[in-house]
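User: Okay, second chain of the day. Same drill as before: sequence in, structure tokens out.
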Amino acid sequence: MIALVACHFLLAACAGPLVHRLGPRAFVVLALPPAAATVWAATEWTVTASGRAETWSWQWIETYGVSVDLRLDALGELMVLLAAGVGTLVLLYCASYFERDTPQLARFAGNLLAFTGAMLALVLADDLITLYVFWELTTVFSYLLIGHGSERKQNRRSALQALTVTTFGGLAMLVGFLILGEAAGTFRISALVADPPEATAAVQAALVLVLCGALSKSAIWPFSMWLPNAMAAPSPVSAYLHAAAMVKAGIYLIARLAPAFADVPVWRPTVLVLGTATMLLGGWRALRLHDLKLVLAYGTVSQLGFLTVLAGAGNYDAALAAVAMILGHALFKAPLFLVIGIVDHATGTRDLRRLSGVGRAAPWVCAVGTLAAASMAALPPMLGFAAKEAAFDALLHGDTVDRWVLAATVVGSALTTAYTVRFVWGAFARKPGVADTPTHRVGAAFLAPPALLALCGLVLGPGVVWTDRLLSQYADEFPVPAHPYHLEIWHGFGVALLLSVLAWVGGAALFAARSGVTRLSRRIAWPTADGVFGHLLLGLERFALQVTGFVQRGSLSVYLATTLMVMLAGQLAVLATDRPWDGAVAPRLWDAPLQGALAVLTSLAALLCLTVSRRMKAVVLAGLTGYGTALLFVVQGAPDLALTQFCVETVSMIVFVLVLRRMPVHFQESVSNWRRAVRIPVALAAAATLGVVVWVAAAARTAEPAGAAMVQEAADHGLKDVVATILVDLRAWDTMGESAVLAAAAIGVTSLIYLHRRADGASTPRADGATASRADGVTASREEIRGRDTAWSLSRPGMTGLPQGDEGAPERSWLAAGSTLAPEHRSVIFEVVARLLFHPILVLSVYLLFCAENMPGGGFVAGLVASVALITRYLAGGRFELAEAAPLPPGLVTGLGLFLSTGVALLGLFDGTVLHSWTYHGDLPVFGKYHLGTSVLFDAGVYLLVLGVVLDIVRALGAKVDRQIERAAGVLAAPAGPTSGGPGRGPAADGPAAEGPSEGDAR
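Assistant: Same drill. Structure tokens below.
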């Protein structure tokens, strides 16, 4: 099972090169994983139909009971066949639907196949958390698929609306899952259904939250607005996501949980009322629309409401009818959407007012569409008729509420018949006064997928008895009545057949009076859910603007004071209430007098920051507080922390200095006496409160510290540096998360600086004084110094015409790009020092990386040390020198670091656990015995990540500002054309955001 799911995602990752090489024919290759899943599910038919289930489980984090569980039972068998089978045909359909020059086709193909894999895993999941993960994956991939063609505003808006609605429901559902899992003592779905928890208030609240997720996913009112708008997506997406897959996920979840919770008081009223309302409102709205896709979209909403009623009714016969209707709905709604795609492809329109004579021009398309429509209208001998008969019979023999629902269902069936006839008439009939629509020829491969689905609906009508054994296995999870219903195409003349005839007649009458019905529908139309959603978003945006304008005053001191006061109030309230200092050990002032001296000096440096008016002095004093903290670490016996603190403070001060070049020398803000009188008490109170909290927290420890166990664990593995072992082994999950956060923060900072794309051209000065445009900063810098005689040259051409002897000597350049600096900005001593120290510092960084097992070091501090080496080159030689020293784009270095760390973490899966560590022992002729552990490789990823992040920030805040200074001095010409800052921003606009990317900035 897991292999089939993984194949979908693996092949989806290869969709780009496949589409690039094969064009639309790549969809045939991409259809192989869902085809294999279909074949596998078909071979398991007899197993699941006999009541057995295939299971697969993987203990991910055994200590905490976290596992990935998959299970194939009768309901899962049905959903896998639909998700994989229809997915296969839709992918084959795409091979004819799209052209080779379709924009972003590779991305679309990969997203569609990945969605198929996520849907397959969703219906196989036997764990609530696993189900939620793949549930949200379907949400993300549906967002990408609906947003295909993002250059159109409607696609972007529809995708965002679908994402917003379904994500809101998914988050509510997650909370419900957590409550249910805690109440039941298990997150295993099969165990939860077999032994449901008692229907307490918490469980009922959890069920409401779970239903919010299910109903929003299946577009049930009041969440139904996203589905019609999602018709902006291509027809294959509508056929798969909105007929056979995504919208069925909510119905599937209701059907999965109904055997356990249908008797809970909150379940049936919620499901029956909202399902019935959706069925009627969707069917009525479909009668007045003219876009064929919208007619089917609102028809789908109506049908989903009907399926919700059946799946949530909570009895044997209704459950049997529900799974039969799930099958029937997929087999008629998917081909209808595919037929619409063919009609649109062949005629260029979906407006039923403009379509005429298409049935005669494309008779086979008309036949397939009519066959599928007959099943939607529940005409015999189609599968839709057998399923509708089962639904009528189930509701007829239910309680009073079920019979009221039956009456509404008959009305809904009449509406279904009406919009079905309207669809067939609008798509294929010849209309008086409307010229025949020019129609292109439709190929057999294009028509085959919808034709196969429609034929399945025809064959399974009389053959519905073949499915009875499988589908009744799901229904057996409910109490079995004395005379259970069996699926057959003909049950004789009875009330159910009479109700079907009544629905057909009513639908025909509504179609005959379609003009009056349309006028009446428009006259009494309520505000659409889409309009209400838009007004809610507009109101939310206005409210957010008002709140932002009130709160965000542009003063950092106000923000900090507000944060401190809120923290202060909360902590003081807790301290005053609990009085946790009673019985606590009194704090010690220091362990050694030297600690007190360092603390006093550090505090003095912090206080001096308040007295200076120059920004540079404030930066230096703030850096001294960091160095003082590092010295405290040294005295306390924490060399790892001290080394890291020293490096962080050094890099931070350099970055501060780079930024200060474009800021005023003195602080501009003037602080009045009354503001200072308010700030000082707040600051002192916050500091005192935090000190008390830290003391109380340390004194309140009752459990044994974990440090001793970690020290012992490190010693058992022959390691001496406990801190490094914790970071890359014992708590490697934390390090991975922090690494991802660090990379995201760096990307966010540099993205705020660059409003232009990093690949945009940038003007660079050439040696001849002209201006050249470069797309890649590294290439530009290398081109800039190419051909110059530098100390880095491997060979120097013969120098002729120079005096011989002591009269003269050629000028020596110590840096690769030293000659690019103006003479007044050069420092020969600094260049020499940078040249001499660069390689030793890099060697030191590598040493710190590899010695971390037994001595202070590690990937983080080693990356900072390597960054200091590159920063030294930049300070000595400028931005061109930085580009020569680090020719790789920073984003590539950062990505390689993340890739290496993540890859090492995933290697542990071969032993069953993520981040499982291995150690390889070997013997080299010269060096002797050695060992290499995966923790070192993991640390190497951290090394590259930190190096890339610092390099990115230095290039953004250093090289960027260099270009601005040069432009201000007239050395560089401003780039032509408007900037991305919007109207009114000329080339001379100040600040980093007004500039294009500089040399060395491209990722």
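The longest strand covers residues 54-61.

User: Thanks, on to the next one.
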